[in-house]
Amino acid sequence: MGNQDISLYFYQQAAEKNVPVALNNIAAYLHQKGEDKTSEDFDQISKYLYKALQGGYFEAKEYLDDIYDLTQDFKKFHPDFKKWDGDYIDFCN
Q1: CA distances for 31 relative to 19, 47, 87, 90, 92, angstroms
Q2: What's the CA gap between 92 and 58, in Å, rounded?
Q3: Rounded to two decimals, what is the model's pTM?
Q4: Distance CA 53, CA 69 (A)
């Protein structure tokens, strides 16, 4: 088992407990894994980012905004979600 596999295992354990940084890290792992992403892939990534954001990990907001247009189901299930139009430093403060 490689270091990345070990990290993913512990992130998954923490994500099951809704630890926001772990949710964000799983999203990052899924995003870097593979090359040809589908809207389903981005929907899965967005679920982790949204949970991280809901848990107070505000850095996930910028990442979620970046992939928002590539999602399909996320937009359906979160029709009130709005991309941030300002500086993300302002969003976090």
Answers
A1: 19, 12, 23, 26, 23
A2: 6
A3: 0.89
A4: 17
**Helix, coil or strand: residue 44:** helix
User: Which of 78, 3, 72 is closest to 41 using CA atoms?
Assistant: 72
Residues 6+ apart with CB under 8 A from 9: 1
**Predicted local confidence at residue 93, as pLDDT:** 67
Averages of pLDDT over runs of 10 residues in the chain (93 residues) are 80 94 95 89 97 95 96 96 89 75
Contacts of residue 10, defined as CB under 8 A and 6 or more positions apart, other chains included, come to 22
* pLDDT for 28: 94
Place of tokens 């389903």: 40
Angle at 43 between CA 45 and CA 49, to 5 degrees: 35
